[in-house]
Amino acid sequence: MHHPAPQRLKPPEQARTAWWVFNVRLVNVGVCIWLLLTLLGALAAGDAVVSSLQFLMSAQWIPLLYLSLVVAYCVVVNSWMARAAHQRGERVGSQAHDGSLNSE
Amino acid sequence: LRKLSLGLNAWLAIYVFALMALLAALLLAERVGVRREVISWTLLGTTIFLYAVLGVICRTAVPLQYYAAGRSVPAFYNGMATAADWISAASFVSLMGTIYASGYSATVFLMGWTGGFCLLALLVVPYLRKLGEFTLPDFLVRRYGGQTIRVLSALAVVICCFIYVVAQIFAVGLITSRMIGVDFQIGIYLGLSSVLLCSFLGGMRAITWTQVTQYVVILLATLLSVTWLSFKQTGAPWNVLDYREVIQKIEQAQTRIANDPKEIQLPVAYANRIAELDAKLQNPKQSIHEEREKISGELRAIRQDRTQDEKYLQLDKRLRLLNYSDTAVIKKWQSDRTRYVQLLESARQQEIALRQERTSQRNTNVYSLVGEQVNFIALVIILCLGTVSMPHLLMRFQTTATVAQTRSSVCWTLFFILAIYLCLPPLAMMMRLEVLTEVVGRAVQDLPDWLQQWSRWVPELVSFSDVNQDGIVQANELYLGTDAVMLIMPEIAGMPYVFSVLIAVGGLAAALSTADGLLLAMTAALSRDLMGFPSLRGKNTSSNGSHNEKTIRERGMIGSKVTLLSAALIASYVAAQRPADIVTLVALAFSLAAATFFVPLVAGIFWMRANRHGAIAAMVVGPGLTLYYWFSMSHLPLSSQNAVAEYWLGIRPVSAGIFGVCAAALAMLVGTLLTRGHSRYDNEAVICMREPDHLQRSD
């Protein structure tokens, strides 16, 4: 019986394109979320003093959501990078401490 | 690195405990009656000494160390240092005051200054780190090529950083002079020496570690103050996270003030006083003569009346001032006029604030609400884009070892910034409640000491005038400038004196840390991009270079240090002239940075076709339009109807950069599409940025 050969790493050009497409999609989603949060914060603008109800949805807490967005983005990208490097048998950051400029 | 990191953690823990122990010891000392001067000198001296020691220990003459701390700073510590770099005097000293004065609408700064980090992480920082270029001009030259780009971007870096650093040194002067009781100008130069101690010898390497220690001071100052106030006002220190009870009390107090006839009449009284003074100042000599005659007549009339002794003394005092010197009288009238204008603006703000509150509750005046929202969005966006484009911030993310660590360090930075920023709104609200309940309604004879001292010391920031002469303090008779509220806060709240010193030391740390970063960014642009001292990259960075290379490198480093010193001295001289308030200067710096750099940066990374012509067009049109809008509109008074009609789309000059960014984007688009395609620079740089190393081309 014929089994298909185990999937190999994509050729470099395809891998490069796949990585960039993945990255751009993440960036697009991230920027959309950022814009949504910013508009939400601005919706309640114009009130000089926060009332009790407004406080619950106040812009003061939106920075926390910004932080969650940045953390989520970094975790996804960094783990993607780590996995891709692992597939190639490399350890992320292995060349990090020699001051080289382009180490990922 | 792991071993080093563990060592660093231990050092950090020791430092935090030592600082807390010092504060506890000073609190104890205050209780047993140690003099205030001793307490302030001890805390100020200890922290400055620590910064100086770190500055000397980390001295270096190696360019990679001087400009990028050897690219070996762990993500956690880089995040902490970047947070200190970011939390400037505007954040620490002025932001709380702005929230105090404007309430909810001031949270625009919280959103803008944190939202920028999302864009920084998503759009810019990892790619810049991947390319490995240390400064913004380096990046733009590598991406677009050409000397025009280098000169334009370096000039823009110098201008943005200069405006921002002037604001920091202004704050340093304000705090230092207050703490040790010297003249404002002397305070500036004393503060400047502290800035130079941190950055002159060690560059980024020294700045990184002083910023870490400065962040701890800023954090402790904020956390201890907010928990103290929370405990005092609500009985529980953790109410920092939920201060609705405080807000309800403020609403009650504000409603009472809004319905008080005396408060309502005050703006009219101020307007009358200002008109009187304007009339006098039009022909001062004649007015002084007339006033002399008038007072002399009144004095003659009541001279024999023993029941009017007090009035006689007052009139006699006024006459003596009028007879003393015409110049002194004119100066006094001018300062009185400034005070009344401040009080009138403050009263109008209160009035506008209360009107807006009612408007939003009834939802009747939709136009005003929409106008506020448009301004809110414009300012948030411009602060975010300015954050992305600030050269000193971008430099800090070049100090980590890898791109992955750079991303993590953005997360840490935002975390550390939020730890401070989330404390500022409750602090401002608690402070407002304190003023509305403890100061407003008091008899004028019982004015608190802080009000008398500060109004004597900085009348342009703190003033009080019993305009209606009813002997009672009204809310509209009291003016607290945004730059002063944070510094006075411990005295208003009746905290121990150690807290006053701690807040001042925290403010100083915030201003110093930002000033250091800005000076370094400015120096890099001036010395390397404009004067042509040796580059960080290439053979000169090698420690094994030939004797000739080493000599060139050393000369370059000496040149950089001399440039840093000169830039710091010029900035101090300008700050000593008190050009404007801190937040205004910072807003201008942000607008300019966003209008100049945001479009070329992001297009350079994400638009393969973007070319040099487009970038040059964007970097000329963007800041040009921003400066035009700023200077043509900023002279109009904010609250006047004419000003609102003059503004483009109703947007205030503080967000001038929004027009600059749009114009820059258009210029980039047109400039690129109308000229020939990308050059060889574009392909090389873009491919390098977009490819992770494990996918790097074998050729």
Task: Write a brief structural summary.
The complex is a heterodimer of chains A (104) and B (699). Chain A has 104 residues and is mostly helical.
Number of E strands of chain A: 0
Cα radius of gyration of chain A in angstroms: 21 Å
Distance between the termini of chain A: 43 Å
First-to-last CA distance of chain B: 32 Å
Name the overall outline of chain B.
Answer: globular
Fold blueprint:
The complex is a heterodimer of chains A (104) and B (699).
Chain A: H1 12-43, H2 52-56, H3 62-87
Helix pairs in contact in A: 1-3
Chain B: H1 2-31, H2 36-57, H3 63-68, H4 75-86, H5 89-102, H6 107-131, H7 136-144, H8 147-180, H9 184-199, H10 203-234, H11 244-258, H12 261-282, H13 284-302, H14 309-324, H15 326-362, H16 366-389, H17 391-396, H18 403-421, H19 424-439, H20 449-457, E1 462-464, E2 478-480, H21 482-492, H22 497-530, H23 547-576, H24 582-606, H25 612-633, H26 641-646, H27 657-674, H28 680-690
Antiparallel strand pairs in B: 1-2
Description:
The complex is a heterodimer of chains A (104) and B (699). Chain A has helices at residues 12-43, 52-56, 62-87. Chain A is mostly helical. Chain A is elongated and about 50 Å long. With 699 residues, chain B is mainly α. The longest helix of chain B is centred in the middle third of the chain and has 37 residues, at 326-362. Chain B has 28 helices and two strands. Chains A and B meet through helix 1, helix 2 and helix 3 of A and helix 6, helix 11, helix 15, helix 16 and helix 18 of B.
Question: Which key phrases capture this entry?
Answer:
heterodimer; A: 104 residues; mainly alpha; 3 helices; 0% strand; B: 699 residues; two-stranded antiparallel sheet; 28 helices; 77% helix; 1% strand; globular
